[in-house]
Amino acid sequence: MGRIFVVDLEGRTYKCKFCKTHLALAGDLVSRGFHSRRGKAYLFSNAVNISVGPREDRMMLSGMHTVADIYCCRCGQIVGWKYVSFCFKYVFACLQRHFHSLFLTFFVTSNVSLFTFSLQEAAHEKSQKYKEGKFVLERGGIMDGLDSEFYIDTRPSMSDAEDA
Fold it and tell me: What is d(CA 41, CA 134) in angstroms, rounded to the nearest whole number?
């Protein structure tokens, strides 16, 4: 495995809960109203220091989406998922790979209804298109940059002068 280069963000950040690697800026937060299988989640327009897993179609509360799990690049923990853009080339490649002989037959004979049906199945609701290319970070796997490991004792204490 190669060397990992980590991007340090400036300003208020969201970090990996496990290794404190910066993942996103608070300014890139789009919505706090998302939910995952493990609890609350936040939608971000951008994320860094992540690796993206394989894409898959997943049924969610808002319908079917093409997503890819995202992992912290330092510790490898799953931190959320990315909404993957629908890509005609991807569908074309899948059809060609799985139905190579059939693909040529129905494409050449102009049986477009089967091809159209496949595209309609793969495309998702237009009302959900705003999510494409965005990242969802699960609240259980991240911590706000304001969260701190330091404990500040706010109880009143006596000074040295008062001890005497």
Answer: 13
CATH architecture, domain defined by 1-85+127-147: Beta Complex (2.170)
Strands (E), 5-104: 13-16, 22-25, 29-36, 39-44, 50-60, 63-72, 78-83
Q: Where are the domains of the chain?
A: 1-85+127-147, 87-123
**CA-based end-to-end distance of the chain:** 61
pTM over the 0.70 mark:
no
What is the side-by-side order of every strand in the sheet holding 13-16?
A: 22-25, 13-16, 142-144
pLDDT in tens, the chain (164 residues): 577 789 999 999 999 999 999 999 999 999 999 988 889 999 999 999 999 999 999 888 888 889 999 999 999 999 999 999 755 444 555 555 555 444 444 444 444 444 433 333 333 577 888 898 999 999 999 998 765 444 445 556 555 555 55
Q: What are phi and psi of 96, to 5 degrees?
A: -65, -40
Integer CA distances (angstroms), 122 to 65, 88, 104, 118, in order: 9, 10, 20, 6
How distant is the alpha carbon of residue 24 from its chain centre?
11
